[in-house]
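[INFO] parsing input record for UspA domain-containing protein
[DEBUG] input buffer:
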Amino acid sequence: MKWKTVLVHLDDSQRCDARMQFALDIARRFDAHVIGLYLVCQDVIHHIFEPAEPLFRRAYEQQRRTALDHARETFELAAKSAGINAEWRAPAGPVLDAALLHGRHADVIVLGQDDPDDATAFVVRNFVEDVVIGAGRPVLLVPRAGDIRTVGENVVIAWDDSREAARAVADALPVLRRARFIEIVTVERNKDVQAPAGIDISAYLDRQGVRASFASTPRSRGQSTGMTLLDRANAVHADLLVAGAYAHARGLERVLGGVTRNILQLSTLPVLLSH
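[DEBUG] output buffer:
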């Protein structure tokens, strides 16, 4: 199994070029087709303009058109320079619906981490979370800052015996088969509750031609499970974290936080998330 179609979300944000190059690098590795999906926030115009201000509305819409044309030119030139087979899409309609529809026809979806310091990075509330939950495809999350020199050479797998974790491991197999080092990590959440054993998932991976080590790490006092996983990934210099998304009810995680929310908000390395 290989990834043959990579969909990357494009917008006007400061991090868009890095996300685009990330997707093109993944496509080059797997000889894949890349779809550049241009989606930006649509609600702002309704809050700024009243129907009695047609001149301002037209000026704003022209600005949006100019930004779209620039994004398309940048994407197509980058894909051509990289020798990647690519296509541009800028669908109309609700942005989340478009992301889910087009994402379901890809093998993997490349999204950017939320960036509270860049207003142009905002698409719609809970955009990343809802794509992860609704698309039925793995999402590769690109961090909001930092250079990405490698991805998938040194991988940490977050394991808790859940359905979501199993789905993430299966979805990540194209990358795992190429990795140099893989560590399966479980977090001991309670001293009275034994962490899930990794022997079965290790055996599964071995039959797939993937060798992985196993580590169980305790959660530090006052530290979340998500931060423990991220700390472990950084400690072993991982360039990819593989994790299942939302092992608990999504609404509960949005209110209380949780492993998925920690990873989405705080990760400084690329993350592959599956639900």
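[INFO] The mean pLDDT is 90.
[INFO] shutting down worker
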